[in-house]
Design goal:
266 residues; alpha+beta; 5-stranded antiparallel sheet; 4-stranded antiparallel sheet; 9 helices
Length: 266
């Protein structure tokens, strides 16, 4: 736990034990389709596996009709006949061919998972063949991207904006997977006056975001946070602030005019 004390205020920052996926509570631009045998990752979907996902995305691009289905089957047969050096090589070739067609309608980025002493996700390879690999894609239709950025046609600049926004969503989800989620409690004279949870990302960045939620006069406290490993120290600090409040109240009562005190009692 981190703690900062300034005047009558005591600010505490600690990990948020109740982690909620940002994919569940935040509106998102891209859709994450993930496939893993042990973990439920990304957004909820009804695809059986990545092959089913790519097939549906391909047909959604060329048409969910007889002509589209024939085009899909023809493409798979042609690509497969060119790659006979191993099932993985052939599978990757078919996937790449489908993604090339899918890119006519959608903007996609691959999703890679690292599973080693915890989980992590990003849109580029971890370069670890043992504990990482691709688990899916994040995607958005070009139509939705144009609406989001008020564009009239797809350009390289607009595509980059869409990709950057999807990468930021993956980064937020990565923080959730890593458990990088924090909250704060603000005490004044030993009494809890404010709290907020769900700040994700690097601790320094999370603290900067917390500052925006703190009242004026307390925002700089996030720069003076220090590690507090002993609960007794925290309790003593809060009791000290509470005692100051009691002493101040007693002192004010002691110096109040006698008539006013009697009137207040009545």
């Amino acid at each position: 736990m981190l703690m900062a004390v300034e005047g009558p205020y005591a600010l505490m920052v600690q990990p948020d034990d109740i982690l909620i996926s940002p994919r569940e509570v935040d509106e998102h631009f891209g859709t994450m389709a993930c496939f893993h045998s042990r973990y439920a990752l990304g957004d909820s979907h009804n695809y059986m596996d990545k092959d089913d996902f790519l097939r549906e995305m391909y047909l959604d691009t060329v048409g969910h009709d007889e002509a589209g289905l024939k085009r899909y089957e023809h493409m798979v047969n042609i690509v497969s006949s060119r790659f006979r050096h191993g099932p993985k090589t052939e599978e990757r070739a078919v996937d790449d061919a489908m993604l090339k067609v899918i890119s006519e309608k959608y903007i996609t980025l691959p999703l890679y998972l690292m599973d080693h002493s915890g989980l992590a996700m990003q849109t580029t390879s971890f370069n670890d063949p043992w504990d990482s690999g691709q688990v899916g894609w994040i995607y958005v239709s070009k139509e939705d991207a144009l609406k989001e950025f008020c564009g009239e046609k797809m350009t390289g600049a607009l595509r980059k904006k869409a990709e950057d926004l999807m990468r930021s969503e993956v980064a937020a989800y990565d923080s959730y997977l890593r458990g990088e989620c924090y909250g704060f409690e603000l005490y004044k004279n030993g009494e809890l006056t404010d709290s907020c949870w769900g700040f994700t990302g690097d601790l320094d960045d999370a603290c900067k975001d917390m500052a925006e939620y703190l009242p004026e006069g307390c925002k700089d406290m996030v720069t003076h946070l220090e590690e507090q490993s002993h609960p007794a120290t925290i309790i003593k600090t809060l009791l000290k602030h509470a005692k100051i409040q009691v002493d101040q109240a007693a002192k004010a009562f002691e110096h109040a005019p006698r008539q006013q005190v009697i009137g207040d009692v009545r």
